[in-house]
Amino acid sequence: MRTIGQHRDEVAALLAPVLAERGTETVALDALADGAGAGRGYRVLARGVTAPVPLPVFDNSQMDGFAVRSTEAGDVVRVVDPIPAGAVPAPLEPGTAAPIMTGARLPDGADAVVPVEATPPGAFPAALELDALAVPDGTTAGTFVRRVGSDVALGSELARAGDPVTPALLGALASAGVGDVSVVRPVRVLVVSTGSELADGGARDDGGARDDGLDGAGAVIRDANGVALRAALAEVGAVARGVRLSDAAETFLPGLESAVGDWADLVLTTGGISAGAYEVVRQVLEPRGLVVTPVAMQPGGPQALGRVELAGRRVPVVAFPGNPVSALVSFEVFLRPVLAAAVGAPDRPTAELPAAESADSPVGKHQVRRGRVADGRVHFVGGPSSHLLGHLAAATHLVHVPLGTDTVAPGDPLTVWSLR
Tell me, which fold does domain 188-343 have in CATH? Predict the structure, then answer.
């Protein structure tokens, strides 16, 4: 059996060419802001961007106040027409001050701003009634002025290739008048749910009678893995499609190749790799390059991966077990860290906290339990079984019981990953 670390390294090595060779696309800033085509919007610049204009593009006021000449500090000057944001002001004549709003362009001749709070009225609009202003002693050039290029100089590097497209970067690009950028194309993942017993997740059937005595509702299993893994992939910037294939070997491969086509960068399967009689993923894909690699982990021990001959090309395949908790835990442990790092998505926040209660763990496996944190301690949610999806949905943390541990006692330190 492999360790978790060994298998995670193998997954990273398998995906390295995919992440390096995705190609690029030009996307409008508005689409990036909406997260178009890439889950929560995690995207990475393919090319750097130089500033086509300085930021700010003109000297402007940092405060609501009065534009003045610093050389007239200590003088009383006449108040002239106000300058709202968006106006192109007339030059400021000597011996005058102009009411100016935050962000408004500083008039030629002015080099400082006196805050409105420093005037007797103390605020606008009352201060608009002033006929004269006493420019405070000590007023110097640049006081409360945002200088041209003080944020970003003209022609400077606004962002580098490989930088994640963050909200702040989108704001800076928009301020500089950049309408679109070249970004790395998202990873395209085909999520394959296997099992002849599966029905659409969330769908209701007619519950009709069957020859085996089971009604329709009792004879099928809803596909939880497809929808859950597509949502998980979206959270790290991947684009996913789902397909459900039966356990019949004669139809599995044609259905898989049709779905892969020339679209998928990665195939992620669930189910069909254990020791049962109808393990279609293992039976059909092992001869084509899939390697079954059990891992010393519970849940999620059965694992497989490889570059598999599909639709006339070698396609990376990562295969998870079919039980829903096993599939989601496998994603968190093996696939999410690799995809998140590629797009600058954050790691799961990690902490070491004491256990609130006792638990047993198989000594030869790294157990991943579900839990909640309260009063600084870890409380287990449900048992370790891999079918307890409702308990995983109720949990806020994954709780790691390391290899070689057979018993957890109250107070024992445990590593937890926050899921929310």
Answer: Molybdenum Cofactor Biosythetic Enzyme; Chain A (3.40.980)
